[in-house]
Design brief:
By secondary structure, the protein is an alpha+beta fold. It folds into three domains: 36 residues, no CATH class; 185 residues, Rossmann fold; 56 residues, 2-Layer Sandwich (Alpha-Beta Plaits), CATH 3.30.70.20. 28% of the residues lie in helices and 18% in strands. A three-stranded mixed sheet has the order 3-10-11, with helices on one face. A two-stranded antiparallel sheet has the order 1-2. α3 packs across α7 and α7 packs across α10. The longest helix has 19 residues. 34% of the residues are buried. The N terminus is likely disordered.
Amino acid sequence: MPFILPEYSGERSRFRFIISCVFLFNKISKFDECCDKKLFKGGKEFSLEIAAQAIVYLEMRLRKLPFTLYDFDKIIAVSRFKGHAQAGFGGALKQIGIGCVTKKNKFLAHNENMLSVNPKKCNISLCRKECIDACSVDAIRIEGESSVIDPSKCIGCFNCRSACPIKNAINRPNPNNVENFVERVIDNAFAVLKSFGPENIRFINFAIEVTGQCDCIPNTNMPIVPDLGIFGSSDPVAIDKACMDAEINAPGLPFLKPNGEWTQPEAPGIEKFKKMYTMVDTNLQFQAALKNKIGTTNYKLVNIL
């Protein structure tokens, strides 16, 4: 089975850490012998042109997908349902829209464009061209007295920026606003479904210990609602909508404030993620997904336990 490497740096980008999390509640200890080390970290990719129905208009867009994804004939996308400060929530749609594309498209979902060199700051006479050595995809070259980053090759790993001894010689791109971030994530999800085949993908959402923040936050804080259950579906839109409705209909849980007092829990019927992040709209994901005809928000819950 494939293990999808996140675009973030640090401990979570290491294979053994990821697999140890996968087998945290399993008795298997020799996980290196049990798992195929298929890591979607840059690597070989191909471009797919999709007719993406954005929230406002129709546009042809290119999406980068990893060749290694197609070493497998089926995908089971297992997600932990939770809040997200940009997308409003994270579930099946965000899992395939971020987890099943290349590092480059993960980067472009979060940022307006790729890394670039600041010619006013960069001066190769003041360094040892550390950026070139740090780049794993040969995206940097020297032109005159400055380096240049080829955006068509750059995957947004930030290795060049970390290695450069000159402060701000490599520009950090502006982050996408909420609408553009959601659109790009859903475009990515559409590209994965279109190319891999929706009949070959199934979705499981663990709506357990539902926190208000994403796993990319080191401390995601306490759960905001009681455990909602485990959801399964062949439709990523329907499963996320079912989880969102369950979150809204559930009673909130109290929070312990710094002064030692507990907050008053939110009543059922209130969208807790929206209450926490007033600047985001959890409906944006569903709007973009419906326009791209990824799935439906209509569903019927069938309890199996």
